[in-house]
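Worked example 4.2. Below are the chains of a multi-component assembly; read each line carefully before continuing.
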Amino acid sequence: MKNEVLLTHDLAIGYQNRRLAKEAEKHGRKYPGKVVADNLSLDLAKGELVCLLGPNGSGKSTLMRTIAGVQKPLGGHVTLDGRSLERLSTKETARLLSLVLTDRVMTGNLSVYALVALGRYPYTGWMGKLSKDDETVVREAIAITGTRRFACRHISDLSDGERQKVMIARALAQDTPVILLDEPTAHLDLPNRIEVVRLLKQLARERGKSIVMSTHELDLALQAADRIWLMSPVQAEESGKNIEMISGMPEELILDGRLEKAFKRNGFEFDRESGSFRINQHHEGCIGLVGEGTLAYWTKRALERIGYKVVIDASLPCRIEVSEDRGNRWWRYYNGKSGEPFEIQDIGSVISCIKKNKTGSEIVA
Amino acid sequence: MGIKVDSQTSPEHSWPLLSPKNSLIALLFVVMAFFFMLDLALGSVKIPLGNVIDIVFGKGSENEAWEKIVTYIRIPKALTAVIAGAALSASGLQMQTLFRNPLAGPSVLGISAGASLGVAMVMLASGAAANAFAIRQLGLGGSWLIVVASTLGAAFVLLIVLGIAVRIKDNIVLLIVGIMVGNITISIISIWQYFSEPEQIQDYLIWTFGSLGGVLGSQLYVLAIVVGIGLMISFAASKSLNVMLLGENYARSLGMSTLYVRITVIAATSLLAGSVTGFCGPIGFIGIAVPHLTRSILNTSDHRFLMPSSCLVGAILMLVCDIIAQMPGSQTTLPINAVTALIGSPVVIWVIMKNRNLKSSFA
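Applying the procedure described above to all two chains together yields the following structure tokens:
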């Protein structure tokens, strides 16, 4: 394929270990250490945003560190901009790949502007003096990330969301084609999370940056990512591979059921329709729902929350009909015992009425 | 959704300055020059400032005694104060950034103790007590020997501390280890003292009080050259030290070799703290207090500015301590080590109170 900035070829990640290396020699095993995952052949194109998903301990950080060249791979190699990572010096790597880590930078007396300017380190001379061009890059990085407002403030005075954007600005000032971010949305509230992800998408689209971010947030990843790399634990056979890497477009993964399968294996129910996990389990019974639009959707959500399985079926004896007419909302609740429905005008009463009646049809498989 | 680039529309001057103005450093230099002159003028014999200036600029003075006092005693002592203050402050600044610990400093992490051990070993080998007089008796060759021994002693301790730092990433643990290594060093010295003659112990004790007055003639050149080299290495490390503020992981991702920086900082601090301790005795608190003081004066964490300003502030503080130690108008002098602690400790406490949190003041 064309314009791949980052390629991994048959990469095995893990930790080198002297004892295991000796054993590997004896038993003819392939890798000299504890393997976290192997056979990783991944690619990252220019302008692509990839979300790296996986439960805690699945090796997301190990993969990130290996790609960044901080940790040595157990086997295979990483190619950055057409060149093997092993052959690149740290200085050269610094011009191709920048990092946003979870490490908290708490240095007092360090202004946002000065911090972002540190991103120019690989480009400046021995005294680190910024040229006019360097300064332009720094200012642009600050402007793009929307951190202009607090450029004068000290890094220790910022909120978590602001600090994260500043760290992204620093990576941007490093001016690398690839940016790796380790859980950039952790510890952020929803608006900040959305802002950060939106910013990353924008950088990928408009600046052609290739971005890999690890995250725990599935819904955010499914919405934003061009591709998903999912590290999914499988039952460990021997001491070998116990992580399976699933990669593809989010929609592709949902439609062909691979995502569902990966989560099901780990005991989670994934709803293919909404692209999210099912938190509620159905135990109260089945209830029919007649109606459409937002009102029907949220009624369904409320019913599911209190433990009903909702089916779109007008023939069930136990059902709810919803309708909306010029701002007036109506719920008709048939409890399946008396023929006459309860007519209710607000959703709170609907739910308490159903809870009181405790009715529902048998769940048909 | 377009990218808003407001850097073009907003006026240039609204961007913050990356570093404080050079004029601040010039001002510090003027203040240092003032205290230098004051240090020359004050002492057991009070010499008018005008005459001091005349003597310094080679115009001489009608009072021969004054000229002798200033030229042969006070100028070397004041120069030693400037060199020692600058060297200790620069080494403290680097160590605080390298260890990311506000309490790091030559005296805390056992560097001074290591240098003391080096000095003690030289004295033991040459059969004399480790004191300034003995150093003087050894002459120029001896003074080089002292510098080499104290620097190696300092480097030895720093290497042990740093070796542990590679394995244990916890700063507090590291600090405790540093103090312990320092204690071991001190105990080795006291065992040696135990088997020494009482006169030698007394001499050694006097050395530990610290003295700026013992460095004369050729020794001053040796000290100046070694500290000069140490300071040059420190200035060269400024850029890397700035990146170290982000933490080692970020520093590495920016293409910095952490090993290189560690070696540079060990070399520089060993030279600086080692040589000063060798000649002047273990002088405490300047190394810790001055970097904090300088950061709060300059309100920056840019080492390209912190390094020279710390040197200047250190020199100023050392001169002030020397002036106080001479107890102007009286015949007695106080040990310099006691005075630096008297002035240094309140400074550290003041900085903590002002920042509420010593950690936020840098790392």
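Take a moment to check your reading of the output against the notes. The longest strand of chain A covers residues 4-16. The domain at 4-96+176-271 of chain A is CATH 3.40.50.300 (Rossmann fold).
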